[in-house]
Amino acid sequence: MVAATVGSAVGLGNIWRFPAEVQSNGGAAFLIVYLLCVIILGIPVMLSEFAIGRAGRSDSVGAFKNLGARKGWWFVGGLAILASYLILCFYMVVAGWTFEYLWQSVTGGLFEVASENVSLHAHYVGRMDSFITQPVAPLVNTWIMILINLGVLLAGVQKGIERMSNVMMPVLFLILLVFIFVSLSLPGAGDGVKFFLSPDFSKITPGVVLNALGQAFFSLSLGMGILITYSSYFPKSANLTRTAVTVAGLDMLVALMMGLVIFPAVTSFGLGGEELRGAALVFITLPEVFEQMSLTRFWAILFFLLLTVAALTSTISIAEVSVAFIRDRFHLKRWKACMVVLVPLFALSALCSLSLGPLNDIRIVGFNIFDFLDNVATNIMLPVGSILLCIYVGWFAPKGLFRGQLTNDGGLRSAMYRPVLFVVRYVAPLLIALVLVSYFL
Ligand code: PHE
């Protein structure tokens, strides 16, 4: 189960979202705030979810019920489910891009430069830019990913996919090491390393802090009820603290490695042009890195295959939260619940995808639909959900629950219990609230 939890954490959040956020939030200063958020807030919030899940032994609403929480607390579970569904809407779109790039690596189309006069860099920028702003092509890919999700969920073979991903994630790790090596040997790589690792503290603003917090929670799959569900399968003997530290540590490591692949390449080749969104960053920069390697297509196929599988495990586990909820709440058959969850996604993801192209003019508080959903779910719903979760675990949960879970009923001498409880009770709710408030003031 630890491997599955790591598998859930490591995904497009690390590979795609993290570099984009670092890029648009000024580099190393963001990185430091992000790392602090993971260590100080992420791990204790994760432990709270683990405790509820392993003690409540159910999905994110059922667990609260099983613990005898008053009805109002189920709302926390409900909020988490809503957040996960909103995240699914745009995550599916990016999963579609991944699939498209896998396909183009297989056919070799990705590396075909149309005319001699175009620089390679301009080629990759143009390719991604014109791809995501088209109405139809990205949509088709997104829908393919939804269909694959539907197929897997209907056939009930999630476990198989998960096992596949558990084998593939170590491979991803290894090939990232190879890419780091290539990237660091590019001309001008040093500036990228400096951008990524040498902080300019004057760049830290309330917005940067909120983005870092959101990224930390997104990447650790926190505040979505996922970890409550996962930990309900943990054995009684599992050491929760050690598990949380391992998951958070590996997740941070993958993000750091990804930064070391992307930023040296960015300073070496240049960015994707002013108007291009950070969201496109890795899809432009990575092919440029592959181009530097012999066996370009081999690396591209391998990488995008791993990324597609990582995206699939994530979308499936996010969808599963809603499926389980709909099935149990409304007493529907599993296949009906799958339909209720996934069919609306065809339209909702389409809106997200189109909002980068033809529907870009539709703005909600200044954001297009894609960015709006991303910002609201990631930067607001996950932190708010996490505050409520901490308040429940810290103050309202059955007495001794948290201690019992962290120490396995006294069996483990977990030195971490006291400081973690302190964070869950006071530090996390206050600090997260402060970040939210200071952003909106
Ligand atoms: N944490 C995953 C990532 O970094 C995203 C995810 C969220 C996966 C929720 C599962 C559940 O991509």
Rg from alpha-carbon coordinates: 21 Å
Number of strands: 0
Uncertain spans, ≥5 residues at pLDDT below 50? none
> What's the order of the H and E elements?
HHHHHHHHHHHHHHHHHH
Q: What overall form do the CA principal axes indicate?
A: globular
Instruction: Provide mean pLDDT, rounded.
Output: 92
Largest sheet: none
User: Total number of helical segments?
Assistant: 18
Which ligands, by name, code or SMILES, are bound?
A: phenylalanine
Residue fraction in strands: under 5%
Helix content: over 70%
Question: CA-to-CA gap between the ends?
Answer: 42 Å
What structural class is derived from the secondary structure elements? mainly alpha
Task: Write up this protein.
The protein is an all-alpha fold and 441 residues long. Helices cover 76% and strands 0% of the residues. The chain contains 18 helices and no strands. Helix 2 crosses helix 12 and helix 7 packs across helix 14. 52% of the residues are buried. The mean pLDDT is 92. The structure holds phenylalanine.
Please write out the topology:
Layout: H1 2-9, H2 12-24, H3 28-56, H4 62-66, H5 71-107, H6 120-133, H7 137-155, H8 158-184, H9 189-197, H10 206-219, H11 226-231, H12 240-269, H13 281-291, H14 296-330, H15 334-354, H16 369-396, H17 401-406, H18 417-440
Helix pairs in contact: 1-12, 2-10, 2-12, 3-10, 3-12, 3-16, 3-18, 5-7, 5-14, 5-15, 5-16, 6-13, 7-14, 7-15, 8-12, 8-14, 9-12, 10-16, 10-18, 12-13, 13-14, 14-15, 16-18
Bound molecules: phenylalanine.
